[in-house]
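Re: the 191-residue chain
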Amino acid sequence: MNILTAYRVNYVIPPPPPPRELLSLNCVEWRTFYLRDIFTYIQRGKRLKNDDHIPGNIPYVSSSAMNNGVDDFVGNTEGVRIFRDCITIANSGSVGTAFYHSYEFVASDHVTALKSPAMNRYVCMFIVTVLKSLREKYSFNREINESRINREQIILPADSSGNPDWQFMTRYMIQTEQILLARYLSHVADS
């Protein structure tokens, strides 16, 4: 059994909602939020020179725009910053590139970790998409630093109280995931 077949057999998803019930990004109010107001934890990773990498199996996340930012696998656990269940945004290199990480990883000093207990993985994936719009503002010569990230704002769906609408973002991303997985599984079944 190949990996695609195994995936299909072991991963059961509910069918996507009918088109008339699909959530739309146009049916919610949008509001501007400072990153410092929606993330309770904003911390830059810590420098780990290549010569100091210990071979291991912990993802090392840097400013790469590929492979979810994973640049290496290390065994370092001391003198590093280890995160989990958060978003990273590249400060330099591929500046503004953002990824969600559900797994434990070591963060280089070329990324900043953004985290909030109010956010589940679906909210994080929604926000990653919004954060990627920041790439246009930054470049190799204009990197993201602590003062810039504290002044940065993004636009998100807001609830009736004017707070980020975590529930809408969650439902929207679950819907998107269901649609994409159904399309993928249909393709695999036809192969």
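Helices lie at 3-10, 35-38, 121-131, 146-151, 166-190.
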